[in-house]
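re: ur question from the group chat, yeah i did fold both. here u go
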Amino acid sequence: MCEAPDETQFMTKKPAIITTERKCMKCEENAVLIIRIDDAFCRNCFVHYMTHKFRSAIGKGRLILYDEKVLLAYSGGHSSCAMLHLVQQGFLEHVHKKLRFFPHLVHIDEGAVTNQDMGERLCAQKDITCKLQSTGIPYDVVYLERVMSLDHEQLAKKPADLTIENCSGTKKEVTKTSGPVSDDSSTTEGCPCDRDLTNGMESLDINGLAGSLKKLLESAKTLTTKEDLLWQLRHQLLIEVARQRGCTKIMLADSGTLVSIRILANIAQGRGAALPLDTGFVDGRHGDINFVRPLKEFTKKEIVLYNKFHDVKSTFIPSLTTKVGSGASINLLTEEFVNALQEGFPSTISTICRTGEKLGTEGNSSQNKCLICKAPLDTSVPQASALNATNFSLSLSSTCKRKMSSKQPSSDDQCCGEGDGGCHGNTVNKIDMKDIEGLLCYGCRVTIRDVTDLNLLPSQIKAEVEKTIRRSKMKEEIEDFLLPDD
């Protein structure tokens, strides 16, 4: 093992910085804050620095084209509020180079995850929708429960409306020259009424979607698994909303602090192969729609200071990790580690992000993708590999083995005669880990192993699994009649 001399120090702890009587590093005026390691800024220079970095991130490689529709994910937190304000500033008249895309806001209500009652969800939604409506940008409010019944075939034929009915208030368009303007043709004024929000939640309860989501999360054994499932479901719903609204890009308000935490946490959870997609500036795994992270170069401290200088108010909404200890999940433990290290060593976040950008895998666009996260499968490995060793260890340590029971075929088991792999004559009653394991990447396998009942997964995932099972059974039945490949 390599050893460094005793007098060599690779990292030195940040000394205490005296903030009084400091001058701005740009204009030599009195500084009001210090960011990064030892960079002092006045208010005007700091705002210009943030705006320039945001605009340069959007214009990087001309990723967002002229007149393109972009979906902005708005959660009400500090990061999403800052991203929305920066986008609004880009449409002002006095801006030298105005933004040339059409933004569309979306907020996902996750009140069912935290077991909030109808009154609490109504109060939070009224606050969110009033803020969204004041921006003059078209917006949608979507309940997370909708992700439990996304039928891709039906959506392709006739796109379903996932949003709350009559909850948008005044629909507004964004022009290329003057920014957001109101649409006078709309008759609805002010914030959405309680009746519209209540009807939306009652429809979810009637369809049983709220209960299905709660049962799915309750079946997860650990908080880490719940967080990962919630992250995947949220992204699936954003993709569907973007397709319905004709958006080709989705802006996420992931700060550099969050990205650095996710890099370490994903590696710990076995998602190293998908690291460039989960933490990169652009995530193009879905093909027709790309996720963009324009705030990746910003730290959480910079975002909070930007909101304070512009008096941007955020909304606190309880989440799964509210009022839990730092050791309750891998993500929380990693967050505490990174934040504590950043306090003593200010270059921690930037170093982790730059290291994560260098990590990558040899990808192939034609290879199969994971059923849940849509990342390329990383399970095609040689026999002598860590993955096979882990699977062998799991099989040895398993105390409960599945028993295959054979049953006599009945009249309901007859094939429908379609022959296209979509036979519904042999209905699949239950899904186990053996059925779904081959369709998942290693990270999703680890997550799904902690779910006690796989039949609680969203309908679109179960439909894909059942389709695969039917195809495999049909192949076994006609295997004697198939010609060999050679």
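okk and heres the other one u asked abt
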Amino acid sequence: YQRRVRGKAMEALVDEGLCKSIGISNFNLMQVREILENSRIKPAVLQNESHPYLHEKDLRDYCRIHNIAFQAYSPLGSGDRPWLKDGPPWSGVELLQDEELKKVATRHSKSVAQVVLRWHLQMGGCAAAKSVTPSRIAENIDIFDFELSADDMKVFD
């Protein structure tokens, strides 16, 4: 019910010219379906946590079918989350230390972060990587001069 009320309020903002489009965040597949079934104006973007350890493939596919951009936050994993300080993530290894991803990065002469960001693009989405380090910011954008092969992409599955 609350999503429907908020959705109608966001549509009113578009109608009044106070915003051009609607975005949603942290919605699962059922919630996105509910929004589409009960709204006049579909969201332009869905922003969810997504990275190689949390693909969200079904949700990404659904968004692609319905022309909703999928934007990943924490696209390089969420190793800085406070609850992870007590031990390794469920995968047993931090994303940027994953040995298989390191091999892919080495083949392309790129960092693991660059390979992961490229994976996001090739999955049909976009990613919002955060950094305050100028060299990392520059590195994060330098992902358009290579492409991951089908074999590279399988490493992420």
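fwiw on the second one: The chain is about 45% helix and 10% strand. The longest helix spans residues 2-15. idk if thats what u expected
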